Every structure is written in structure tokens, then in C-alpha cells.
Amino acid sequence: MEIIAEIGQNFNGDLESAFRMIIAAKENGADVAKFQLYNAKELFTKEGNPWYEYNCKTELSYNDVKKLKQVCDDNNIEFMASAFDSERVDWLEDINVSRYKLASRSINDNVLIDKILKTEKLFFISLGMWYNIQFPEIKSNNVRYLYCISKYPTPFEDLKLSKVDFKSYHGFSDHTLGITASCAALSRGAKVVEKHFTLDTKMYGPDHICSMTPNELLRLSVFRDELNLSL
Known about the structure:
34% of the residues lie in helices and 18% in strands. By secondary structure, it is of the alpha/beta class. The chain has a single domain (2-230), classed as TIM Barrel (Alpha-Beta Barrel). An eight-stranded parallel sheet has the order 3-2-1-8-7-6-5-4. The protein starts with a strand and ends with a helix.
């Protein structure tokens, strides 16, 4: 069972904070420190988006990505990222990532999906914005789907985890408050849990509120380890 600490935008545009968060993720039991790579002006709309300037501030350059990967390597934690365009897939190939993640909002971006598939690396896909009953028709043995509800935060009653088949879904991308839902998903057979990670849920930014703190990550990792022993 793996825990992906989704740092995403939660470093608030400060690379030194990102370095500290990588180390905190490792110290508290995460297997992966994950980021988001995008061209903010192309991905995010300015009109009606109160977080537009924040989105721009948290855009990572190629050199930033190289530095983050090095910090992960130095601290023995896997670096992973959601790439939102083909150029940034090339960045990730250049630094030799092991695996990829596709965000829910990219589920219909066939150009991006094909680009990642051509790497022939393991490929996690969140299905928070996939509204068909059947899984997407992606012909690859490297694809692993994550159950996800794209609400920030997600109400517990919207999850309906008792109906989720974790033999079909590889894992769970969690946007609820706290770690209860992640614990429930692991108990029901999720092999991977991805959850936003922050140093303080009260910090400025759209994702901090539904993120786990270092203490919550530690509790989740202890739960995971004890669950593995129990099983």
C-alpha cells in the first residue's frame, strides 16, 4: 500500500517551502511526493477565477522541477507529477521519472494521454471528472485508475466507498477533510492513496483545507503499516 503526498500548489510558489514539504512527507511515511506541472496562463482561466494569480505564482519551471527531483532523490522519496501538456511530459522524461499521474481534469485530453502512454511507464489516472459508467477505453497494461470525487472538500456522504470495487480501481484520490476516508479506502483494498499535503491547513490557497498535515500523514502511514501487518 502506497501513500502519495500531493504537494501540488501547496508550496505557495516558494521553492524552499517545497523542499521542506518533501522532507516532511518522507519523515512522516509518504512513499511519493507529487507536484503539478502546467503553463498557468494556458491551463487556468483568468475571468471568474479568484485563484488566477496564485495559479501563476505556483507554476514550476524546468529548472525548478530538476531541483525538486534532486531533493526527492537525496531524501529517498519518489518524485511524481501530473503533467498538463506534452512539453512537461518531455521534462519528466528528461529527469527520468518512474511513473506518471493524470489529473481528473485531463481525462479527455487524448493528445496528453497518448504522449504519456508512449513512455510505456506506469500511469495513474484519477476519474473524478469521468462520468461514464465504464472505464475509459485506454488500451494499455500500464494504466491504473484512482477513484475520485472532484469536490474540494468532498463531503463524506458523497464518497459511497462501500460501492467502490478496489479490484477494479487501483486506489483512491482523497479530497475529504482529515484521513478517515483514506483509512477506509485502504481497509477496503485500495493499493494507493493520494491526498493533498500541507504544513498548515489554514494557509492561503485553494487546496490547503482538504489537505493532510504532517501529523495526519504520520497517523495514516502508521495505520497503513499496521493494516498490512493485520492482513
